[in-house]
User: What shape does this take?
Amino acid sequence: MPGMPQRKSARRGIPFGRAIAAAVLSTLALVGGARLLGAPARAQDQEDPRHPRRHFRIEHPASLTGVGAQAIYRRIRDDMIAGYRLSGVAYADAYRHWPRFNRVPYLSAQHGERYINNYANETARAYGRFEAAGVMPVGSILVKDSFAVTESGDVFSGPLFAMEKMPRGFNPPGHDWRYTMIMPDGSLFGTTAGEGKARVEFCVTCHNLAGEANDDLFYVPDQYRVRAAE
Assistant: This one.
């Protein structure tokens, strides 16, 4: 992608500063146990960072209530976006203005035991119909921002995961989706048919499991969904 900086780190999240940490600390205390930020959470997997088979996983993720997860996200979201913005990719900042299709952040095993949020641009507004969404038109962009919270109370920003529907023939095995992962410091982990493409090949394999009828899309778990009428 033009303007994307070189990858700096495949595994490390960016811890938040002491002011943010103090604010998060008070929130975590409400949901059970916390301590000031320390070292980044370690990945459990012994993966080859040049060609991983799945997202690197967080050890001992905290189990938060929806209210607790939302409170933390509200406090750290601006800092997360400030990091993603350094990538120079327009949607890394613009997604803040897009509809969010989950009521509160939810823990995703598929994304390495991180808390995630689902956003879509106007072109992909049909995503809000979930299983009835059909095939997304070219120009659709779906993003998930992420953060990690450990049982010991550490809070770290996670990657921004993106899917962009490209013109027919761009990537037939992936039904023409371009997968991109932007790290918390704005560096590029990988993008389909571009820099670090081997590092996001597993995204195609995983999303293929959703099936062609679902246009390789997974949807927000039912209990967290924002319905179109809401």
Remarks:
- Residues 2-12, 17-46 have pLDDT under 50 and may be disordered.
- Residues 131 and 198 are 29 Å apart (CA to CA).
